[in-house]
């Protein structure tokens, strides 16, 4: 992928370079993202699934690009059409260093997706127990109930996941 050729001080029409923007985010190509931003490309553009460049860069494990997008003003709290945030995505993927970076933002750690699940629920469901203390330190509610009225503890209990049950109890989950 090459950097789009833009006129000096030229402005891009919103979404003219959507394909290049989202591909660059997936590939961690800050040079392309930066060129488009300087030409006026809207940083919070989202694709048809609601993924922003920051969500894609995080999900595809490009921590430097995530940092640069946040420094450029990208919203780390944005969610896709399913309500999943970049934090939820990297927890799912197991990219815990990026998760810890995202925890340093102003985002609500108890934000929920469309199913009412939080980042802590994702961590429990996908075995990311080493992230529990960080999530709790940033205010995660260990007894949050999802849209069905289940806590993360109740969900992993129903799955027979004793390791997750024990880890959740250690961070204060009670039901």
Automatic annotation (TrEMBL):
Coiled-coil boundaries: none
Family annotation (SUPFAM superfamilies): Ankyrin repeat
A matching Pfam family: Ank_2
ANK repeats: 49-81, 82-114, 115-147
Keyword rRNA processing: no
Domain of life: Bacteria
Stated name of the protein: Ankyrin repeat domain-containing protein
Organism: Paraburkholderia dipogonis
């Amino acid at each position: 992928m090459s950097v789009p050729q833009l006129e000096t001080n030229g402005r891009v029409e919103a979404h003219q370079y959507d394909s290049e923007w989202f591909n660059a985010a997936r590939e961690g190509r800050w040079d392309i993202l930066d060129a488009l931003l300087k030409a006026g490309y809207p940083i919070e553009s989202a694709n048809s699934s609601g993924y922003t460049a920051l969500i894609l860069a995080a999900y595809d494990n490009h921590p430097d690009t995530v940092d640069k997008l946040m420094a450029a003003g990208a919203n780390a709290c944005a969610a896709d059409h399913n309500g999943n945030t970049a934090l939820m995505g990297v927890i799912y993927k197991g990219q815990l260093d990026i998760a810890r970076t995202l925890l340093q933002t102003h985002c609500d750690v108890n934000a929920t997706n469309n199913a009412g699940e939080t980042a802590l629920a994702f961590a429990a469901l996908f075995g990311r127990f080493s992230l529990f203390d960080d999530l709790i330190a940033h205010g995660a509610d260990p007894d949050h109930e999802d849209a069905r009225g289940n806590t993360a503890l109740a969900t992993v209990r129903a799955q027979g996941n004793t390791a997750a049950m024990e880890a959740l109890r250690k961070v204060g989950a009670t039901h």
